[in-house]
Amino acid sequence: MRSAALHGLSLSLARQPRLVAFSRSLVRRVPPRDRLGRIAAVFAFVSQAVDLRSAVAGASGGLAALTLIAGEDQGASLLLCALLQALGERARVERTRELAFVRVEVDLRDVARLPPHAGLIVSRGRRYYLPLDARRARSPLGFLPRDVREALARRRGIAATSFTAA
Asked: Coil, strand, or helix at residue 102?
């Protein structure tokens, strides 16, 4: 599925009242001003759900349906993006030949709070995007495989694919 189609589908999902209510329930214990905490909570939920789904043969539900629609590697990204958008985050599903992931825009003041391994995508317009790969529970926040980072570095409009958070 193309990036534009994935983005349109994620926006459509993010507007569903039940998904909005569910996304809010995921972050109800996170302080409202803690954007990174909200992003991390939703990321952890989706990546754990992916691991659980792959551990339980024949699992059904929303993630399974999205996987059928978008494909095995894009279902988790689609759900993650829709949940973040439902919370008002500026998120988008991005694709490279290697994988689909979510990029969510973060403010400069959030950058200092990121883990040291987080590699930001920095646009030429000096916007900062945190990449999220929710294909498995052990994926660290803000980490993409080297081949994906190299593919992104070759794209127009990308100034850098890594940024020292400290």
From this structure: strand
Long-range contacts of 112-115 (CB under 8 A, 24+ apart): 112/165, 112/166, 113/36, 113/165, 114/36, 114/141, 114/142, 114/165, 115/140, 115/141, 115/142, 115/165
124-139 tens-digit pLDDT: 788 899 999 988 777 8
Give the pLDDT of residue 76: 85
Six-digit token pair at 78?
């689609």
Residue 105 scores a pLDDT above 70? yes
Residues 7/80, Cβ–Cβ less than 8 Å: no
122 exposed, middle or buried (CB, 10 Å; 0-12, 13-18, 19+)? Answer: middle
- Rounded Cα distance, 131 and 53, in Å: 22
Q: What DSSP character marks residue 157? A: T
Cα–Cα dist 127/107, whole Å = 8
Length of the chain counted residue by residue:
166
Reading the block at residue 51, the tokens are 């691991």
pTM comes to: 0.84
